[in-house]
Amino acid sequence: MTTHHRGDRFSPEEVAYLNTLAAVHFADEERIRYTDEFKIESLRSYFNGESPVQIFRKAGLDSALIGNKRVERCFARWKANERLVQEAKHPGSTPPHHVKQKSDVPHDEERHTVSLFDIFDKTSDIGIDPERLILSSDKRIDLRDLIIYQQAMHISDLQNSVDRMQEELEDLRNLKKQLGL
User: Across the strands, what pairs with 26?
Assistant: First the structure.
């Protein structure tokens, strides 16, 4: 799996995956729009000491998929938004904000869709909103494929972390030799 960098576009499969996540209001090949609930909960977790990368990963938004810069930019924007910060620090302290409904999300008028809600009743346990899984006349989104994709992204990120730690350990061993320890 490759890490996305500025200017990269999401593949159709990645867009389909992103659009199944409860944290994502809408995703297309260039951008991701997050739900206000996710933004507020993310800030709340951040203010309680959790790292942005961990927060996104728990929501199914692994940095190997969306890129670390996107996570950093999101938190910078959200921390600068007084309404989001106030709601994160003091729940219920701000007036209700309009949250777009699913019908507000752009969609293909030609597409015939069927909700998979009745088929998969445990998807919310893994961060996937079952109401957003869709059967399309031209392509079927299989929950198992989404889970495999999410886990593959997580494994890739973990492997990258292990590789970095092994390099750091090797550097420390070399330094130890140089110092005669």
Answer: 33
Report the sign of the C-alpha dihedral through residues 82, 88, 91, 92, in that order. positive
DSSP state of 118: T
> What CA–CA distance (Å, rounded) separates 172 from 168?
6
Asked if residue 112 lies in contact with residue 118, where contact means CB atoms within 8 angstroms, the answer is no
The tokens 């942005």 sit on which residue? 52
Question: Collapsing DSSP states into helix, strand and coil, what is residue 41?
Answer: helix
Q: Give yes or no for a contact between 154 and 62, defined as CB atoms under 8 angstroms apart.
A: yes
Backbone angles phi, psi at 34, to 5 degrees: -100, 155
pLDDT tens digit sequence for 30-56:
999 999 999 999 999 999 999 999 999
Asked if 73 and 4 count as a contact pair (C-beta separation under 8 A), the reply is no
> CB within 8 A of 60, min separation 6: which ones?
17, 21, 23, 126, 127, 128, 150
Q: Structure tokens of 44?
A: 């709340």
Q: Is 92 exposed, middle or buried (0-12, 13-18, 19+ CB in 10 A)?
A: exposed
Q: pTM for the full model?
A: 0.56
Residue with tokens 């924007």: 77
